[in-house]
Amino acid sequence: MRKILWTVFHSGKKLLLWSIYSIFAGYIIYLAATSPKLESKLFFSVVGIAALAVTLLFEYLKRSYEKMICALTFDCDIIKAEQLKKQLYKADLFKGFTGSLRIFDALLLMDKGHYNECLEHLAKNEKFFRSTFDYLFIYYHTQLHCFYFLEEFEKADTALESLTKLKQLKTKQISPLYSWSEIEGIKYYVQGRNKKSLEAFEQVDTSRLNNRELAYLYYMQGRSTVKSGAVSDGNRLLKEARTLGNTLHLTTI
């Protein structure tokens, strides 16, 4: 359902943008056609074509990026996402999507189960991730997930402390990219407090999550449920996570 709403919203937005571009192109053609001097005709033609070419390239890149994100977050299709990433990288002549690809690569490495490589990628690009509070939120949250799956709980505690400080100091400046209830659920799990972990996970508003996020949530809920003693219920959640996760590494563990 969320994917359908996302598609409808972006389709309407694109229709509006293309209407604006069409009006702009028509105006440039009008200026070039009605200008009395040849120099003016050439000027308007060259400037108009250049502006439209750059605009159309940006729209193509943005569309490619949206498809790439959709492939990973809604379809959970790593192969498709990687193919779209290669296409975007080749077409990005001005490298305007370099930052976005750094974030995407972190998520992709985690989804492939390359947790240590993901942590290395984060460390290598730490300066970039510290450039905004939202990026820093992504940085620590991705770290936390990697430590969770590696079962390096002491390091997970360090990531949790950083997230707590971020929440306390700059809450109003951080976008709601992730659920704090989910973070609490992980915190209690690494502390071995499985019932508290489940209580926190149950507070997550699943209507705001895409399939990728749901797969991770159900997987973590499943592990906490199994460890709390409700093995049958836990296995059901794990099965649901693997169904939603499609090609994500968590479907194999």
Topology readout:
Layout: H1 2-34, H2 38-73, H3 78-91, H4 98-111, H5 115-124, H6 126-129, H7 133-150, H8 153-170, H9 180-190, H10 194-201, H11 211-227, H12 231-245
State the main characteristics:
253 residues; mainly alpha; Serine Threonine Protein Phosphatase 5, Tetratricopeptide repeat; 12 helices
Textual characterization of the structure:
The chain has 253 residues and is mainly alpha-helical. It folds into three domains: 1-96, no CATH class; 115-175, no CATH class; 179-253, Serine Threonine Protein Phosphatase 5, Tetratricopeptide repeat. Helix content is 78%, strand content 0%. It is built from twelve helices and no strands. The chain has helices at 2-34, 38-73, 78-91, 98-111, 115-124, 126-129, 133-150, 153-170, 180-190, 194-201, 211-227, 231-245. Helix 2 runs antiparallel to helix 3. The radius of gyration is 23 Å and the shape is elongated. The relative contact order is 0.08.
